[in-house]
């Protein structure tokens, strides 16, 4: 991987971790929950939730899904651009064009 690509990936990863942590903190305040209550609802360890909030770990897709289900709301919004790209990829793969 080229250095510039690696740097871009690292920057984007940090942006995503920051966005997730900010959204999670916002929802915790709105719902009046603490980290322990959220962890219990989501079936995650309190230390893991804490690391996600501190941006000290890359949250897995499964843990994000668990958090969303526990909070009964999305933490990550699906963008129109992503939807269109996914649809194109799916139609391309169906035709063997990927």
What does this structure look like?
This protein is mostly helical and 98 residues long. It has one domain (3-94): 434 Repressor (Amino-terminal Domain), CATH 1.10.260. Helices cover 72% and strands 0% of the residues. The protein contains five helices and no strands. 8% of the residues are buried.
Short description:
The protein is mainly α and 98 residues long. It has five helices and no strands. It has one domain: lambda repressor-like DNA-binding domains (434 Repressor (Amino-terminal Domain), Orthogonal Bundle), CATH 1.10.260.40.
What is the element layout, followed by pairings?
Elements: H1 3-31, H2 35-42, H3 46-53, H4 61-71, H5 80-94
Fold-level CATH name: 434 Repressor (Amino-terminal Domain)
Principal-axis shape equals globular
* Domain tally: 1
- Give helix % range: over 70%
User: Number of DSSP strands?
Assistant: 0
* Name of the CATH class: Mainly Alpha
- Judged by helices, strands and strand pairing, the structural class is mainly alpha
Q: Name the average pLDDT.
A: 86
CATH architecture: Orthogonal Bundle
Mind summarizing the main beta sheet?
A: none
The separation of the N and C termini measures 21 Å
Task: Give structural attributes.
5 helices; 98 residues; 72% helix; 434 Repressor (Amino-terminal Domain); globular; disordered C terminus; mainly alpha
